[in-house]
Structure formats: C-alpha cells, structure tokens
From TrEMBL:
This is RRM domain-containing protein. SUPFAM superfamilies: RNA-binding domain, RBD, RNI-like. One of its GO terms (cellular component) is SCF ubiquitin ligase complex. The keyword RNA-binding applies. One of its GO terms (biological process) is SCF-dependent proteasomal ubiquitin-dependent protein catabolic process. Keywords: RNA-binding. It comes from the Eukaryota. It comes from Parastrongyloides trichosuri (Possum-specific nematode worm). GO terms for molecular function: RNA binding. Residues 111-201 form the RRM domain.
C-alpha cells in the first residue's frame, strides 16, 4: 500500500504540469534563502528537495529533472542583480510576451508628451478633454508635488505656487507632434499657459530606467519595492557563480563614459544646454570632437531661452560680448537664425563684426536694442545674405543706418520688422525689391506718404503690411495699396488719429480679394458702410478685428449683422462695441459656423440673452471672452455650463472668460461640463504702441522736431534734407554721409590718393 501511494505520488509529480508547479515552489524557496547566488548550492538544494518528493525513484529521472530545472532557470533573466526580488514575479514569465511588450512600449513612447504648468484646480477629466482636440488620448496621468513642510510638520509659507504635471499618451505619433507644434497662446487654461515637451529617453545599452505599471507582462518591482526616487536600476545576465561585488564591478565597467560611442556622445551633447556642452568639451579630445559635431547641428540660437542656453542673463549678470563670441565660434557655421532681443546685455558695435565673421549662413537676425553705426551695417551687407531682419524700438538710430541696413540685403529680404521706430521716415524703402513679403511698421509715427508709394512701387509681392500708427498716410496711399498690392493677405491699420483719411477712403481696401486677416482696432473711421462693403467682397476673410472701433452712431446692430456673410471666419473680435447685442450676435453665430474664437470684452449691451445665443454654437468653438460685460449674470453662464457636457462624441473643452463680470462663483455648477471658466480680466487696453498707437505721442514728437528745426541755424543742413537728394543709383556719392569737415590740404599727390582710398572704403565704394 505504501508502495502504491508512493507510485501514485511519483506519477503525479512527474506529470509536466505537476512538475513545473513543484519546480516553482522549490525555486521560490531557493530565492527566499538566496540560493541562486551560487548555481552549485542552488542545484544541490534542488536535488535535496527532489529526493524528498520522489524517494527511491530519483536515479532514473535525475537527468530529466536537472534539465527541467536548468530550462526553468533560463527563464529568470537578470535575477541575481536585484537582491530585493523574491522571485515570485517571474513565476509566470513568458519571454515572447516580454519582447512584444518591449516593442509596444517603444512605439508608445513616441506618442507620449509631458505637460507642465497645469493649474492645480484642473482635474484629470478636464485635462484629457482639453487636449483631446489634438487627437485621441489613450491615457492621461496627472500628478503634482506636495508643498514643502518644515520641521514642525506645518506647511511652509512664501513657497512658489504648485502646478500639476501630466503625461499624456496619444493613439498615434502624429497627434503628439501636432500638440508639440501648437501655438503657446492656445494652451492657456485658467489664466496659465501650459508647457508641452516631448519625453526624452536616455540611451538603453546596459542600464535602463524601469518603471512600474499596471499593464500585464513583466514587472521588476513588487508592491514593497521602490525605484529609489528615479535612480536607474541595473540588471545583469551574468552567471550565478559571480559574487555581488564582482557583479557591481563589471556593471561599472560596462557603463564607463570612455566606452560610449562617438555618435552616442554627440547625441547626448546635442540635448544638453549650450553652457554644459562647453564645459564637457574640456574633458578630453574625444569629447571636444563630439562637442564640435554637436554644435554643427545647431541652426537656431535664441538667447532668451534660458533652458536651452543653460544660463539666465540678468541685469546683474548680463550677456557680454565674450559669451556671444563663445557661442558663435561653435555654432555659427550652420546657424540660420539668431535672436538677441529681450536679454539684458552689454553688447556694442563689436557684435556686428562677430556676427559677420562667424555666421556666414545666417538668414534671420533680430538685433533689436543693439546700437550700430553705418560701418557696421555696411559690413553686415558684405558678409551676410539675410532674409529676415528685425530692428524694433530703435529711437536713437540715425536714418542712414536704416538706409544701409536695407540697401545691403535688398535683393534677398523677405521680412522686415521696424516696429516701434518712432523717428523713422522710411525713405530707405526705395531700395526694396519684389522679394519682400512681410513689412511691419507698427508705431512708426513719421512714416510719410511718399514711403507708402515707394513700398507699393518696389514690393509688388507683399503679403503682410502692418502700418498701425502711421498717422501721416493719406487717401491716395490706401488707394495705391488697393491697386498695386494685389497679393496682400494681412493688413492692419489700428489706432485713432488719421487726420488725412476719411471713412470712405478705407472702402477701397475691400478690392483686395486675397485678404484673410484684417484689423482696424481703435480706428474711428469704421462705419456700417465699410462693414457692408467688406462683407460683400471678403469671401476669404478668416480673421476680423474691429475692437473699440467706430463710435455709437457709426456702427449699428444691423451693420454687424452683415458679418454673417463671412462664412470662412475663424476669429472675430468685436470688443467695446455697443452694437453687440442678442440680435446681431445670434445671426453671426447661426451663419458663421467655423468661428473658434469670440472676443466680446467690455460690450455694454451684451446681456444674458446675448450670451445664451452661444448654446447653438458649432462644435468648432474654442474660446469665448466676455470679460467686463456687466450685463451678464449666473443665469447665462450656468446655461452654457449645462449645455456643453462630456459625451462619447465630443471632449473638446471651451474656455469662457468671465473676469470682472457680476458672477457668483458659489452659484455655478461645473460638474461634467466641458466649459472651463477663466476668472481673469482681459479687457484692459494694451499700452503697446504696435497694437494701440497713441496720437498724442505722435503730436509730441512732431512738436519736438519742429522746435529743433526752428532752433537750428539756417546754415545747417538737416539730416532729412541730405536724404532728399539721395536715391539708389547715386547714394554712394552723397557727401551727407560724412561729418562736416573742411577739405584737407595735401603736400603731395600720393597723400591725396591715400586719403581718397580711405574715404572710398568708408563709403563702400570699390575702386
């Protein structure tokens, strides 16, 4: 009987299924005792337990048992490198599933983005719905850091605000790339602009960053284990005969920095900041060569981007000429775009020489705030072939500098931005060619009518023209623009104070059939006649801004109803207009189904009935701004909250700005609503002269110039008089470029020739 029981037990044990279960149990005991650190000890322990289960039957099955054990052990990779693992996580390990999961995670990583600076009040559902408009979201993980706590266990005061961070996984890589390319202004939620970055993954050669997940498959951490706060854990496939000390030594040798391939080192240096890259170059010759190759991949250098530069320039530690030289010596060879604006600096005239010497392939240059001379701009014109030039808010620069800045790049210029140059008359624009596509003259108060004529005659292919605050233009100028610049797509004439224009003169602009963006903010010339003419001809118009334009009598509700004819509109700004009411707004919402952005700030007649018209708005709506509209209440706001809820077909969030309105936040219910409330007041008038130019400031400049002319002697020749006789063909022979000096006296003919050569070089004349 005993033999029969043993036979039955032996038979059950050596069945394949029963055998593997037993081996699982035996191996778990080995792992608990640390037996696998030595293969011999582990096998002897296995043999002991095998004898216990099959007394008297071990000899003829020993080889089979040993093979099964060795086969089972090969399915336990990287086990000896982690002493915290109890072995239970590998009981159901399948190598094929691990390979599949690894390839799946590799593709999934490309569709992940990380979003920072998220308002703390945003929930996971709201975050997912806000970003769902860029593509289908698979998962959204939202987290935030706790406030720091002092030794007493209380929250510390005067700590920075806490923001949430989300890791969003899209269904495809294209959706993630679409979100990475979006304009930062479109990522504003609850008054904060969120930041989106792609997730960078380190090299995966012999060390990996293993993360816990709830997915089925291989897991390296149990519930009680920890990843040590993000520290990279190393796993080895070395044999179990190796000790832990030898294992750590071999692991350190594998990840030695000296053995990293050159291409991998170049990739690492291309991702770190520029300052850190310069520091790493001093390690050895190999790192220096890799750093040089990494710098050649830099095509854009923006000194405002402290994250990429690795250093934030302040008034105490400004940008110096040595810093700039160190950067351009390394990346200037392939640099295409250089931006030196909005950075505290001590740059001088030497900046232009450094740029000209090191950045031979430069195409876009923004040097706003850096004072230069005629010689500097002549030198740049000889060394570079710029396509985009920006020189904004330069009020202390001589008119001759602008002349040579344009003249040196006239054949290649595509975009010119001289916004905020209050004393610029614009006579330099006679050198322009058909290559120019964009011209920004916002806030250039002294631009003359002759300048607009030169632009129209020289740059026929112009597509963007912004002349906000050019108060000297006349009716003839606008008529010439409408007849010559037939490719114009964006036109802007903001500001109030155009004394030489009448309301009927701007109607000729409706003849421009390719217009897609039109702005007349703060312009008192706008009336119902112009709106009607525009709506009949502007079939391609996508963006229309009439904020604070006209007056109470010139623009009526019936006039705004005509906007319903603009079927392609996606952006509409009617802020500050008394004609905005339920009648006009309902017609616009009903017929213009593609509008995504409504700006109706500070509209006195916009009440609850008008706001409730948005209940019938299309699914394209993204933002509604009704800040400072004092006639709305919780009634209309709650109606929108209740109407736009989450469902299976629509997760798009709608931003409703209600700052400075008589709302009661306690009476609003936002549960399951796609409407995100923004309590910021955006109705304040901008002080930027490029958006809201000041006519009073223009009058002060004119009076100042007239006073200077009256005080000057009659024998003095003003700088503007010098330019009256200059043109493109004979500009190099005008004596106005030199200061007033008496003719020198020469002792010999050789001295006269030497002096003539110096003057010719100064005037950029080749002899």
């Amino acid at each position: 009987m005993m033999f029969d029981d043993d036979e039955e037990e032996f038979t059950n044990f050596y069945r394949p299924k029963g055998l593997m279960k037993t081996l699982h149990r035996v191996n778990a005991q080995n792992l608990e005792s640390g037996g696998l650190n030595n293969f011999t000890e582990a096998f002897q322990s296995f043999m002991t337990r095998a004898k216990f289960f099959s007394v008297g039957r071990l000899r003829r099955t020993m080889s089979s048992s040993a093979l099964e054990f060795m086969k089972y052990r090969t399915l336990l990779p990287m086990i000896v490198g982690n002493e915290c693992d109890n072995g239970s996580s590998f009981d159901d390990f399948n190598p094929n599933s691990y390979k599949n999961n690894k390839s799946f995670d590799k593709n999934e990583d490309k569709s992940k983005v990380i979003v920072t600076n998220i308002p703390i009040k945003v929930s996971t559902t709201q975050c997912k719905s806000f970003f769902s408009k860029y593509g289908k979201i698979i998962s959204c993980e939202l987290s935030f850091e706790n406030k720091p706590i002092n030794s007493d266990g209380k929250t510390m005061k005067n700590t920075p605000k806490i923001y949430s961070t989300a890791v969003i996984t899209f269904s495809s890589k294209d959706d993630a790339d679409k979100l990475l390319r979006v304009d930062p202004n479109d990522l504003k939620l609850y008054g904060q602009i969120m930041q989106v970055d792609k997730i960078d993954y380190s090299l995966k050669k012999s060390l990996s960053n293993v993360k816990c997940s709830n997915k089925s498959g291989l897991s390296f951490f149990g519930e009680s284990s920890s990843s040590d706060g993000g520290i990279i854990n190393r796993y080895s496939r070395t044999s179990s005969t190796s000790s832990l000390s030898s294992l750590s030594i071999s692991t350190d040798k594998i990840v030695s920095w000296d053995t990293i391939p050159n291409r991998a080192l170049e990739l690492i240096m291309s991702y770190i900041s520029h300052v850190d890259c310069i520091r790493m170059e001093s390690v050895n010759k190999k790192w220096l060569e890799s750093g040089i190759k990494a710098w050649t991949k830099t095509t854009v250098l923006n000194l405002k981007n402290a994250k990429k530069i690795g250093k934030k320039f302040t008034n105490e530690k400004p940008l110096t000429i040595n810093y700039l030289k160190n950067f351009l010596q390394r990346c200037g060879i392939n640099l295409r775009k250089l931006d030196l604006t909005s950075v505290p600096n001590t740059l001088d005239e030497k900046t232009f020489i450094i740029i000209g010497n090191y950045c031979k392939k430069l195409e876009s240059l923004d040097i706003s705030g850096i004072r230069g001379t005629v010689k500097n701009f002549v030198f740049l014109g000889e060394c570079l072939s710029l396509k985009h030039i920006a020189y904004r808010n330069m009020n202390d620069i001589d008119e001759k500098c602008f002349w040579y800045l344009i003249k040196g790049f006239a054949d290649t210029l595509i975009s010119v931005d001289f916004s905020g140059c209050k004393y610029l008359t614009g006579r330099c624009f006679i050198s322009l060619t058909d290559s120019l596509k964009e011209l920004y003259l916002d806030g250039c108060y002294l631009i003359e009518s002759k300048t607009i004529e030169d632009i129209c005659m020289q740059a026929h292919g112009l597509k963007i023209l912004k002349i906000n605050g050019c108060f000297k233009i006349t009716d003839e100028c606008l008529s010439l623009v409408s007849r010559t610049l037939l490719d114009l797509e964006i036109f802007s004439l903001n500001g109030n104070g155009y004394k030489n224009l009448i309301s009927s003169s701007i109607c000729c602009l409706t003849n421009l059939e390719n217009l897609v963006d039109l702005s007349f903010d703060y312009n008192s010339l706008i009336n119902d006649t112009f709106i009607e003419a525009l709506c009949k001809s502007g079939n391609k118009l996508k963006k229309l801004s009439l904020a604070y334009s006209g007056d109470d009598n010139s623009i009526s509700s019936n006039g705004l109803v005509m906007i319903k004819e603009l079927k392609e509109l996606t952006y509409l700004d009617l802020s500050g207009l008394t004609a905005v009411d339920s009648n006009s707004l309902s017609e616009i919402i009903k017929n213009c189904q593609q509008i995504s952005y409504y700006y109706l700030r500070n509209c006195p007649n916009l009440d609850d009935d008008a706001l409730e018209c948005f209940v019938n708005v299309s699914d394209e709506i993204t933002k509604i701004d009704v800040s400072a509209c004092l006639a709305i209440s919780n009634k209309s706001i709650q109606a929108l909250l209740k109407n736009f809820t989450y469902d299976e077909d629509n997760f798009n969030a709608i931003i409703l700005v209600i700052g400075s309105t008589p709302y009661n936040i306690d009476g609003l219910r936002t549960r399951n609503s796609r409407v995100a409330l923004d309590f910021n007041d955006t109705s304040s008038l901008p002080e930027d002269i490029t958006v809201n130019p000041s006519y009073s400031e223009f009058e002060e400049i004119v009076q100042k110039l007239n006073g200077d002319v009256q005080e000057s002697n009659s024998d003095e020749i003003s700088q503007e008089d010098d330019f009256n006789i200059m043109n493109v063909k004979n500009s190099y022979i005008v004596g106005a470029l030199t200061s007033k000096e008496e003719s020198p006296i020469f002792d010999s003919h050789e001295e006269m020739l030497e002096w003539a050569k110096k003057e010719a070089a100064h005037l950029n004349i080749k002899i």
